[in-house]
Amino acid sequence: MITVDVNKSYTYADYLKWSFEEQVELIRGKIFPMIPAPARRHQQVSRNLGRQLDRFLEPKKSCELYYAPFDVRLPKLGNTKDEEVVNVVQPDICVVCDPFKLDDRGCLGAPDLTIEILSPSTSEKDLTHKYSLYEEAGVKEYWTVFPFEEIVQVYVLNSNGKYNPSITYTRSQKVPVHIFNGELVVDLEKVFNS
After folding, report:
1. CB burial readout 143-178, b (16+ within 10 A) else e
2. pTM for this one?
3. Distance between CA 168 and CA 41 in Å, rounded?
4. Which end of the chain is more exposed for a tag (fewer CB within 10 A), N or C?
5. Cα 158 from Cα 165, distance rounded (Å)
6. How far is CA 176 from CA 37, 52, 53, 181, 186, in A?
7. pLDDT truncated to tens, each residue of the chain (194 aa)?
8. Phi/psi class of residue 182: alpha, beta or left (left: φ > 0; alpha: ψ in -120 to 50)?
């Protein structure tokens, strides 16, 4: 069992040395535990969302789809050395369109799209800490999915590097994926259908 000081700041180099029983994320150098196993509903929604994204992406081969656990390292201002990276997250789903950001350890830099499927124990982290981190890192599009309420909030990065106020979609609606200029529209009826 590894003991860490929760008041200390850590880097990706530290993260690589750890062997916790549970998965963790680093946000601004602070440790955030992840839930041990997502709820069944979470997994259903993730699978259904992933299917629609994958069907669109597969023939194009221009972007890649990843599911957690998948390390996304978000460096600050070119500080890409392991000892300098203080943000390591595992979005539930992410799409990366720049192959140069991908390596054997995951993604180094902002994915084009990140999707977090909220659970009661992670919603505060996803709605506050990750929201500001993704905005600062330049994630072009960020979705927060509320699986039990059956709604999706979409945030799109504007030209000033800030997220526009969210657009909320409900089960009966279709969500245009902005990074693909609306070529892909996700049917939420299929996402929330168990």
Report:
1. bbbbbeebbbbbbebeeeeebeeeeebeeeeebebb
2. 0.90
3. 20
4. N
5. 10
6. 30, 12, 11, 8, 6
7. 466 777 788 888 888 888 776 777 788 888 877 777 788 999 999 999 999 999 999 988 889 999 999 999 999 877 788 899 999 999 999 999 999 999 999 999 999 999 999 988 778 878 888 999 999 999 999 999 999 999 999 999 999 999 999 999 999 999 999 999 989 999 999 999 97
8. left
